[in-house]
Each structure stands twice: as C-alpha cells, then as structure tokens.
From TrEMBL:
Keywords: Aminotransferase, Pyridoxal phosphate, Transferase
Domain of life: Bacteria
InterPro entries named among the record's database cross-references: Aminotrans_3, Aminotrans_3_PPA_site, Dat, Ectoine_EctB, PyrdxlP-dep_Trfase, PyrdxlP-dep_Trfase_major, PyrdxlP-dep_Trfase_small
GO molecular function: diaminobutyrate-2-oxoglutarate transaminase activity; diaminobutyrate-pyruvate transaminase activity; pyridoxal phosphate binding
Matching PROSITE patterns: AA_TRANSFER_CLASS_3
Species whose genome carries this gene: Wenjunlia tyrosinilytica
Keyword Transferase part of the UniProt annotation: yes
Protein name (record): Diaminobutyrate--2-oxoglutarate transaminase
Pfam families tied to this protein: Aminotran_3
Single GO biological process annotation from the record: ectoine biosynthetic process
Length: 427
C-alpha cells in the first residue's frame, strides 16, 4: 500500500464523520478483541463496531468459510435471488435460533443497515393494521433515515428535521435520567381514554435495553405487561433488537427472559457475523402482507454476510454454551463495576449481559467523553452514549478474553480515578 496521507480525511471526507473524531488513529488490522493502527499501536476494543462485532474481529472459523466461499466463486451480490448461501442462512437461523425458541417468524431481508429494517417494520405495521401512528419511547434510538428517525427520540439527531418526522408519539421509558416512570400506566390511559387525543397506534416500538439513549434496561415485568397490553388492544409489539440482540444481553434475543413473543423483531449489526452488512425484519407469518418487491433495495442479498451469519449461528448458537459464557462475563463486569465504581465512588451503573453503562451525570468535572479520551490514550476504545454523552458505554465483543476484559475494565477504573482526582479507584 502507498504511504497514507492522513490529511485526506479532513480534506475529502464529509464533516458528518464521528467515530474517527473520537478515536483519532489510522486503524489497519484487527483480531479478536483488539484493533491495531498503521503505526503499530494496539487497542482493546470495548466498542465492537457499535455492537456489530459480537464475535470479535476476523474470527477464524468465519474467515475460513468466507475464504472458501470466495475461492469457489460463490455469488457475492444477489439482489433477492434464491441462492445457496441464503438458503443455508435461513436453514441455520430456523434450526438454531427460531425453532429451539418456539418462534415461527418469517424473515425479510432488508437493505443492510439497521435503519432500513426499522423502516420496513414501521411500514409493515401500518400496512398490516391500516393505522398510521406508532408509539415509541423517549431515549429510544432506531436509526437516522427519515421514517426511523421519526421514532428516534434524540434531539441531536432530530435537530432541524422535526417538521419532517410525523406519526410517532413518544412516551417516557420505564427507566429515565429523571427517574423511574410508570410507562404502562400512561400507555393504558392513552389507549383506554377515548378522548386521550392519541389515536390507536399500529404498533409500539421499543428497545428492551436502550443503547444509544444511555443503557437503560426495561424491567422484565414491564415487558410482559406491555405484551399483554398490546394484545388486549390488538396493537403490534415491535422489538428493535439491533443493538441488544444477537447475544449481547446473554440470550440470542434480548426479550427471551421476559418469555414474550414480539410481533416483529429487527436485527442488524451482529447478525452479519463478521461485521458484514446485513439486516433482517422478523415477522409473525400472518403479518407478511407485503406485495412482491413492495419494500426492496439493491443490497438485500449480501451473500458473504449470509455465509458469515450461517457460520456464526452454527458455531456459537448450536447450544447454550456460548450464551452461558456471555452471562458469566456479564456477571464479572457487574461485579467489577459494583466493587470499583459504584461502591467507592457512588457512580451508578446499568446494564444486562455485556452491555453496560457508567452514568457520569453527577460526577463533577468528569464527562464520558473525557473518560473515553483518556481510555483511548491508555489503549482502550470505548464510546459514550446518553442524552448528552453522559454515559460511558461498555460494549466489548462477546468473545473477549478474560485477560483483555480485565485489562479494559482496569483501564476504565484507572481513567475514572485519574479524572475524578480522588485516587479512590486504583488500577
Ligand atoms: N436500532 C438500534 C437499537 C440501534 O442501536 C441502531 C444503531 O445503533 C439502529 C437501529 C440503526 O442501525 P444502523 O446504524 O445500522 O442503521
């Protein structure tokens, strides 16, 4: 490769770029839970492609399957043609993910970003019910194309666009920066009072754990009661599992512990197995009212993603062993944060599985952005989230080694300690 001129990004790339601003380095290779730069620096990865790399960077088993597939001149681009790679993915997904969980969803391949799976879900909910409004939650993030952005609550992403984002009513999530809220009671009042001013919606859309909103997890009883309320009013329940799904919270689907079956589920990010672009909408069969090609897109058939996804599913999801390891690691993280962050410093932490947030709202002079920058100097990639980037988000690959998980956590604790300046936390 020719010598790289790093000024090219500032000169040629749009101002919209963001992660490259938070993590200013020229990355070139990556393996497992580590990234490395062109000038030979290594970073532990607690960002994992914003949740797209649950199985880490370049996992060997999946890489081998991809190389074999490319070596055999397998179709790479396939529109929505019937292909052997897609058939194999559907077979693996049904056998190892849907059937063991008693789920009969049909699978729609959308354009490969999460936002397009959400677009499809919103359109289908409206088509299937003949209603137009959707209830979503404050703090929710569902993508930034116009339809999904209408459901995304963040003022940052909506700025300047409010007038273009109709037909979504936001209500507070059960956990919020302002304290807990009885969202069910509010929803019940809106639905059961004929003069509430809120039309009966087509669907309720939610993340079971709000990732971008600040790592707020909906209580399991809330999810059960929400399902029952939606049933009672014949309103569709859509779970956006784009960030919290694919094992992130310790089960393949984040809603499994609630024992509920959403009417639709969106998956993207880690479903592609290797960080390859792929997104799907899962729907109960009776909701599949699409006309052929009514929701389309040229890149719905990324065959490499199908190969990677099928391999990942067979490799990690043939039994519960991998998920059990994720849950174990999640317990280690919870224990560490309790002992080293909440206990000594009184800083709240929240999360499930391997998705955790450290809430720095009330720590004077310490922002998540500052902690993230210091962590980066110390060799850890970790991002912030929340309404005003006040939450440090821990999102390591699910395959992270115990050693690098501990090293990363120590780096977080040391950085917090240094910035809080009280020396309470020692690395
Ligand atoms: N939904 C959730 C819950 C997400 O976390 C994201 C992305 O972070 C999206 C939707 C949008 O996905 P994408 O960025 O692939 O469009």
């Amino acid at each position: 490769m020719s010598v790289i001129d790093e000024t090219v990004f500032e000169a040629a790339e749009s101002a919209v770029r963001s992660y490259s601003r938070s993590f200013p380095a020229l990355f070139s290779t990556a393996k497992g839970d580590c990234l490395s730069t062109a000038d030979g620096r290594y970073y532990i990865d607690f960002l994992a492609g914003a949740g797209s790399l649950n199985y880490g960077h370049n996992p060997d088993s999946i890489k081998r399957a991809l190389i074999d597939y490319l070596g055999g001149d397998g179709l790479v681009h396939g529109l929505d043609l019937a292909t052997s790679a897609k058939a194999d993915f559907l077979d693996a997904f049904r056998e190892h993910i849907l059937r063991p969980r008693g789920l009969g969803y049909k699978v729609q391949f959308t354009s490969p970003s999460g936002t397009n799976a959400v677009e499809a879900a919103l359109k289908l909910a409206r088509l299937a019910t003949g209603r137009s409004t959707v209830i979503a939650f404050s703090g929710g993030f569902h993508g930034v194309s116009t339809g999904s952005l209408a459901a995304t609550a963040s003022g940052y992403f909506r700025q300047g666009l409010h007038q273009t984002l109709p037909f979504v009513t936001h209500i507070p999530y059960p956990q919020t920066p302002l304290g807990d809220f009885d969202s069910l009671d509010l929803l019940r009042r809106l639905l059961e009072d004929p003069s509430s001013g809120v039309d009966k919606p087509a669907a309720v859309l939610l993340e079971t754990v709000q990732g971008e909103g600040g790592v707020y997890a909906a209580p399991i009883p809330f999810l059960k009661q929400l399902r029952a309320l939606c049933d009672r009013h014949r309103i569709l329940l859509i779970v956006d599992d784009i960030q919290a799904g694919c094992g992130r919270t310790g089960t393949f689907f984040s809603f499994e512990p609630a024992g509920i079956e959403p009417d639709m589920v969106t998956l993207a990010k880690s479903i592609g197995g290797y960080g390859l672009p792929m997104a799907v909408l899962l729907m109960k069969p009776e909701l599949d009212v699409w006309q052929p090609g009514q929701h389309n897109g040229t890149f719905r058939g990324n065959q490499l993603a199908f190969v990677a996804a099928a391999t990942a599913i067979r490799h990690y999801w043939s039994d519960d062993a991998f998920a059990a390891k994720v849950r174990k690691k999640g317990e280690l993280v919870a224990d560490f944060l309790q002992r080293r962050v909440t206990g000594p410093l009184g800083i709240p932490v929240r999360g499930r599985g391997l998705m955790w947030g450290i809430d720095l709202s009330d720590v004077p002079g310490v922002t998540a952005g500052k902690v993230s920058r210091l962590c980066f100097e110390k060799g850890l990639v970790i991002e912030s989230c929340g309404r005003g980037s006040e939450v440090l988000k821990l999102l390591p690959p699910l395959t992270i080694s115990q050693v690098n998980l501990s090293l990363g956590l120590d780096t977080v604790a040391a950085s917090l300690s240094e910035l809080a300046g009280d020396g309470t936390i020692q690395s």
